[in-house]
């Protein structure tokens, strides 16, 4: 009798367990990414979207880890757990290439953007409108590489299934022609 009760309990709970462990839906993830998440306002995918954030066209391609632990190698690319962390806590780990810069010109104008290049004399970046900006450092009051992400956290904005769906969509992005 006891074994029948256990089997009945397992069979009753099995559909819920399978549903809870089901992978995300790529199509729903794309819809959330392009709609509710407004991700294309900063990111670019296969030629669509903004250039102010990292291009995610091949974010689903696995990268070799160069270190230990989550985000090893400084990137969430190709790793579902790291992509989920990047969505829920963007400040947790930011690849150096994905950090933003902030400059303040001598006239007090503050601009931020995605760095393209900087050396001892100049800084070049793409601003929030997607424009290429170039400045002589001697013309600046301040130049800083930001350690906080400009990406908002989606914790509390997307539910668990929506995050899973967005991660599934991102993992499906293998780049053009790949």
What is the topological layout?
Layout: H1 2-20, H2 26-34, E1 44-45, E2 48-49, H3 80-88, E3 101-105, E4 110-118, E5 122-127, E6 132-136, E7 140-145, H4 160-172
Antiparallel strand pairs: 1-2, 3-4, 3-7, 4-5, 5-6
Helix pairs in contact: 2-4, 3-4
Shape category: elongated
- Major beta sheet, strand line-up: 6-5-4-3-7
Please give the share of residues in helix: 25-40%
CA-based gyration radius: 21 Å
Could you give the distance between the termini?
56 Å
How many strands appear in the DSSP assignment?
A: 7
What profile does the largest beta sheet have?
A: 5 strands, antiparallel
Low-confidence stretches: 2-21, 67-74
CATH class assignment of the largest domain: Mainly Alpha
Count of DSSP helices? 4
CATH level 4 superfamily of the largest domain: Cytochrome c-like domain
How many separate domains? 2
Helix/strand/pairing class, anyone? alpha+beta
Instruction: Tell me the β content.
Output: 15-25%
CATH fold node name of the largest domain: Cytochrome Bc1 Complex, Chain D, domain 2
At CATH level 2, the architecture of the largest domain is: Orthogonal Bundle
Mean pLDDT: 84
List the secondary-structure elements in sequence, H or E.
HHEEHEEEEEH
Relevant terms:
178 residues, alpha+beta, Cytochrome Bc1 Complex, Chain D, domain 2, SH3 type barrels, 2 domains, five-stranded antiparallel β-sheet, two-stranded antiparallel sheet, 28% helix, 20% strand, elongated, disordered N terminus
Describe the structure.
This protein has 178 residues and is α+β, with helices and mostly antiparallel strands. The protein has two domains: 24-96 and 154-172, Orthogonal Bundle (Cytochrome Bc1 Complex, Chain D, domain 2), CATH 1.10.760.10; 100-145, SH3 type barrels (Roll). The chain has four helices and seven strands, in the order ααββαβββββα. The protein has helices at 2-20, 26-34, 80-88, 160-172, and strands spanning 44-45, 48-49, 101-105, 110-118, 122-127, 132-136, 140-145. A five-stranded antiparallel beta sheet has the order 6-5-4-3-7, with no helix packed on it. A two-stranded antiparallel ribbon has the order 1-2. Helix 2 (26-34) crosses helix 4 (160-172). The protein is elongated, with a radius of gyration of 21 Å. Mean pLDDT is 84; it is low at 2-21 and 67-74.
């Amino acid at each position: 009798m006891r074994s029948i009760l256990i089997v009945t309990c397992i069979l009753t709970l099995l559909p819920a367990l399978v549903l809870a462990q089901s992978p995300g839906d790529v199509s729903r993830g794309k819809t959330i990414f392009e709609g509710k998440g407004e991700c294309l306002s900063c990111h670019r995918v296969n030629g669509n979207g903004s250039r102010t954030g990292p291009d995610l066209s091949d974010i689903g391609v696995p990268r070799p880890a160069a270190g230990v632990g989550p985000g090893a190698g400084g990137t969430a690319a190709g790793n579902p757990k790291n992509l989920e962390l990047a969505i829920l806590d963007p400040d947790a780990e930011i690849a150096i290439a994905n950090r933003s810069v902030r400059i303040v010109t001598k006239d007090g104008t503050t601009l931020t953007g995605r760095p393209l290049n900087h050396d001892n004399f100049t800084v070049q970046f793409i601003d929030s409108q997607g424009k290429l900006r170039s400045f002589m450092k001697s013309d600046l009051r301040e130049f800083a590489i930001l350690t906080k992400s400009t990406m908002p956290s989606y914790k509390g904005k997307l539910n668990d299934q929506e995050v899973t769906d967005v991660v599934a969509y991102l993992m499906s992005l293998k780049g053009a022609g790949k």
